[in-house]
Amino acid sequence: MIDSKQYAVLAYAGTLPFIACAILPWIGMPVVAGIGSCAYIAAAYGVAIVSFMAGIHWGTFLYQADSLPVNLLLTSNAITVAVWLAFILTPVAVSIAVIAAAFVLLLAVDFRLARAGLLTPDYLRTRRNVTLIVLAMLMLTIGSP
């Protein structure tokens, strides 16, 4: 049985780096010494988290391919490659915007999976709430001083 409290705690804890990267520039700390700008850190972390979320879809494809409403193998790879390319090829603000779009797309896929009965309402609610927090923090990061 899946412990919904455990995945919810981990999901919300995963927002903390985004929150820190969004707030620090507004209180006069736009750079973390030895690492880089908060925007760069948020983008790098965003690539990692998008890849992780896409990996969940990849795993779902491996075990549920016949009952899926969408080809998760293709969507997970396309989203991961898109955010990686944006991270290495575009200015950080563009990269963050692409990462934000990826979070929206991943959530849209999860809504389709939930409609197909493959995700629990509790998991989907957690995903939605966490995604909204992440999107807000990414927008604050893009607009930071």
Structure at a glance:
This protein has six helices and two strands. The protein has 145 residues and is mostly helical. The chain has one domain.
- SSE series: HHEEHHHH
The rounded Rg comes to 16 Å
**Percent of residues in helical segments?**
over 70%
Question: Could you report the average pLDDT, rounded to the nearest whole number?
Answer: 95
How many helical stretches?
6
Unreliable stretches:
none
Spatial order of strands in the largest sheet: 1-2
Count of domain modules: 1
Give a quick account of the main beta sheet: strands, pairing sense, barrel closure.
2 strands, antiparallel
The structural class is: mainly alpha
What multimeric state do the chains show? single chain
Number of strands: 2
First CA to last CA: what distance? 45 Å
Shape designation: globular
Strand content: under 5%
Write the layout of secondary structure elements.
Blueprint: H1 4-13, H2 16-23, E1 31-32, E2 36-37, H3 38-64, H4 72-89, H5 92-115, H6 121-142
Antiparallel strand pairs: 1-2
Helix pairs in contact: 1-6, 2-3, 2-6, 3-4, 3-5, 4-5, 5-6
